[in-house]
Write a structure and sequence with these properties.
- Helices cover 26% and strands 37% of the residues.
- By secondary structure, the chain is α+β, with helices and mostly antiparallel strands.
- The chain folds into two domains: 136 residues, Thiol Ester Dehydrase, Chain A (Roll), CATH 3.10.129; 141 residues, Aminopeptidase (3-Layer(aba) Sandwich).
- The strands form two sheets. It has a seven-stranded mixed beta sheet with strand order 6-7-8-9-10-12-11, with helices on both faces. A five-stranded antiparallel beta sheet has the order 1-3-4-5-2.
- The N and C termini lie far apart (57 Å).
Length: 292
């Protein structure tokens, strides 16, 4: 089993909490298995897979068959740990993961987790779908796992609607009349799909005024936030605005996402206002045109 950090593809960082310490003032041994299980959620996120929806599409689920841990050193309260995972192999019906937990360069725990792909009702094993096998292999090889499309509502609208419905209507309880409008027909849209063809992020660009683009309806599947999909959509739309000759691009940011837009170069302007019952602030960024 590898003990070198460089061999792992997934790194999930966490800090040891008080509740995880035992009477010896070290992390209770069973919590390390929980750490690996938490990192597995990060592994699927790195594959751009909304796990539940993906397994439904693949008509199966992954069940733990065996988990083994070997302890090399102990973690203590407030230690910052890197929980590392890599897929060691995909068999006919099994998927084997190798794991390691480090504190800086210090190896604390190694582990092996064996999952079996099975029918979720009977829990009888079945072959690992080719699509899942190929996706895992692509991730471990460092390949790109999502595809971004730019296009019209006519081409992308149906798939974009599924993301908007999940994020704006179901999650944020925004009324349908404020999620879809006539501007969709003339807008330039961006859509990100994973390797299973599932829509996972979207956004649009409209012409607000001559030389001014407006980005809106930016949405990312809830379970995949933090995996740079929103950044990918926003960057593509800003580039589209620049290429058509716009000088400025603006957007109405939900206040909870203001920091995200600031990190990408947008600046707040004006006061906070309410839109669809949610606090927003207008933000803008000057862009240098590439149009000739």
């Amino acid at each position: 089993m590898s003990t070198e950090r460089s061999r792992f593809r997934l790194f999930h960082r966490l800090r040891v909490r008080w509740v995880e310490i035992d009477m010896q003032r070290i992390v209770f041994n069973a919590h390390y298995l929980m750490y690996f299980d938490t990192a597995m959620a990060g592994y699927w996120r790195a594959l751009a897979l909304p796990y539940e929806a993906a397994m439904q599409q693949l008509e199966g689920d992954l069940f733990v068959k065996k988990a083994t841990l070997e302890y090399h050193d102990s973690a203590r309260l407030d230690d910052v740990l890197d929980v590392c995972l890599r897929c060691e192999r995909v068999g006919n019906s099994s998927v084997v993961f190798e794991g390691a937990i480090f504190r800086a360069e210090r190896l604390l725990v190694t582990g092996e987790m064996v999952y079996v792909f099975a029918d979720p009702q009977t829990q009888l094993s079945k072959p690992v779908p080719a699509a899942l096998r190929e996706l895992i292999e692509a991730f471990e090889a460092g390949q790109k796992l999502v595809a971004l499309e730019l296009g019209t509502w006519h081409v992308l609208g149906e798939r974009i609607s599924s993301v908007r419905e999940a994020v704006f209507v179901q999650e944020q309880s925004i009324g349908s009349r404020m999620v879809w409008d006539d501007a969709d027909a003339a807008a330039q849209h961006a859509l990100v799909c994973n390797r299973l063809g599932q829509p996972v992020a979207c956004g649009r660009l409209v012409q607000m005024a001559p030389g001014v683009g407006r980005i809106g309806r930016l949405a990312v599947s809830r379970v995949l936030r933090g995996s740079n999909l929103g950044r990918e959509v926003l960057t593509a739309l800003v580039e589209t605005s620049r290429n058509r000759g716009d000088k400025t691009v603006v957007l109405h940011a939900q206040c909870s996402a203001e920091g995200f837009y600031r990190r990408l170069g947008f600046k707040a302007q004006g006061e906070v206002f309410e839109e669809a019952g949610i606090g927003h602030i207008e933000m803008a960024m000057a862009i240098e045109s590439k149009a000739h």
